[in-house]
Amino acid sequence: MHSPVSIFLAEDNPADAGLVRKALEEHGVEGDLIVIADGERAIEFIQSVEAQGARCPSLAIIDLNLPKKPGREVLERMRLSETCRHIPVVILSSSDDERDRADAARFGATQYIRKPLQLDEFLKLGAIFKATLAPLSE
Fold this sequence. Notes:
The structure is a single chain. The chain has a single domain (5-132), classed as Rossmann fold. Helix content is 47%, strand content 18%. α1 crosses α5 and α2 runs parallel beside α3. The longest helix is centred in the C-terminal third of the chain and has 19 residues, at 119-137. It contains five helices and five strands; from the N terminus they run βαβαβαβαβα. The model has no long low-confidence stretch (mean pLDDT 92). It is of the alpha/beta class.
């Protein structure tokens, strides 16, 4: 029996956040989805996890284009965190820019996925998220 996971999602588009939730459900991933809609609050969340000595989420999914602070700063902060730096981070972005991909790799993203335009393609991402989680939830 898998323990429920917690997944941190930094995403400002409510429709995309809903699609991520649906993709996880479609692939039987159960647990909390913590959705934070701007980069500043996402960084505050990481800091509060550290300050409280709380458990880090099992997976982080970060959009690069966030209001207030960009996703790359959230990723960078995650990787600097003593508590959270080891968790898998998937960058889920509408950008296909090589520089964005290079930045994500440089800051230690586990995976970079371009947001699909088709619903069925988006739902298939649940399998990728689940596979990224798998080693942790055994």
